Amino acid sequence: MEDTVLVVNCGSSSLKLALFDGQHRKQASALAERLGQNDAFARVEGQEEIIPLDPGASHDQALNTLVKVFRDQGLMASTPTAIGHRVVHGGETFREAVLLDDDVMDAIEDCAGLAPLHNPVNLSGIRATLAQFPEVPQTAVFDTAFHQTLPKKAFLYALPEAWYREWGIRRYGFHGTSHAFMAAEAARLLGKTPATTSVISAHLGNGCSITAIRDGISVDTSMGLTPLEGLVMGTRSGDVDPGLFDFLRSKGVAADEVHRVLNHESGLLGLSGQTNDMRSLCELADHGHEPSQTAIDVFCFRLARYVGAMMASLSNLDALVLTGGIGENSARIRAETINHLKLMGFELSPDLNNHHGEFSDGRIESPDSRFPVLVIPTNEELVIAREASRIAGSAAPG
């Protein structure tokens, strides 16, 4: 039987499947969206046909439907030999990917209070997949695990120590699989080993985070106890004054409403009043829509400021690395961000910035730049597939 690896990624209202062969080459992927809503649907990557789902379809229903589609279309000819799951929050319990069992699932559930929008649906996908493939070794790969190397000075808040000791209130960081991939890819492109490579990695999509990676390990990052802290994001505010809660309470706004707005109606969407899609914002700004230009300005300035902050955790810098949907595709955002960093010696080549996809090494800096700047497409699914194969292999008898 040919080795195959299935990667399962459950979002709050979505489920993505990706199938890899034994050499970790992607063979197929599919995405179910708007789960829990009346207009839930799915689509196989590369196919235009919409796959209808039952109104209010759950994650397990979507999983069963997409697995059947994979089989019916001959995309999944046999039972996978390993399955990997993205899990958002592993707290301080998990420093690396682990083989799933009842104890691990209980620990993931214990972390649900730290990621209430993510861990419960991650568990839903895990349970559905275990029911579908009970004999296949399955692995949990945690967004937070890569950041468990943060030193105390980087992960502790200036709060009563008992809050950390008793409740685990600290900075955890997220997007760990993406940042780990960036560190390894940057080292490869620079002709170095990961253990001798120090980079600042910026993952810029609907969710955004930035990480200082020193000699291959995470030493500082922008997201905190939850994925809300740090950079401006698509609908998330990033950093705000905690006193905002008291101020808004005086205006009659309840804490749960503030939390909802900070997560779902802020960021680029809140600033522009129009959209959280950066491509659309750039088009609106080009047509004179001032709030959209303001959203872009705030996004780029906050990102540049965090680049400077991350340098405090490094003794040297081999490259600034940009990834994610915005980082990979928006030359404008890259240029406007780097323009804030001239004092630090960063400088882009306009030609390379506008045509980076035509060059295999991803470098977009000018010859006069003090530091390299790289654009590298992230591949979190590949990281999860590799980890699932590795752990399934170590768990195999004999």
UniProtKB/TrEMBL annotation:
The protein's Enzyme Commission number: 2.7.2.1
PROSITE patterns documented for this protein: ACETATE_KINASE_1 (PS01075), ACETATE_KINASE_2 (PS01076)
What does the record note about the cofactor? Answer: Mg(2+). Can also accept Mn(2+).
Write out the catalytic residues in the record: D143
Kindly list the residues the record flags as site (Transition state stabilizer): H175, R236
Task: Return the GO cellular component terms, semicolon-separated.
Answer: cytosol
What GO biological process terms are annotated to this protein in UniProt?
Answer: acetate metabolic process; acetyl-CoA biosynthetic process
Please provide an example of a Pfam family that matches this protein in its UniProt record.
Answer: Acetate_kinase
Q: Which Gene3D superfamilies match?
A: 3.30.420.40
Catalytic activity as recorded in UniProt: acetate + ATP = acetyl phosphate + ADP
> Where, by residue number, does Mg(2+) bind?
N9, E380
Q: In which pathway does this enzyme or protein participate?
A: Metabolic intermediate biosynthesis; acetyl-CoA biosynthesis; acetyl-CoA from acetate: step 1/2
Keyword Kinase listed: yes
Q: What is its main location?
A: cytoplasm
Q: How does it assemble?
A: Homodimer.
Its biological purpose is as follows: Catalyzes the formation of acetyl phosphate from acetate and ATP. Can also catalyze the reverse reaction.
Q: Which family does it belong to?
A: Belongs to the acetokinase family.
Q: What is this protein called?
A: Acetate kinase
Q: Which organism is it from?
A: Marinobacter maroccanus
| Source organism phylogeny | Bacteria, Pseudomonadati, Pseudomonadota, Gammaproteobacteria, Pseudomonadales
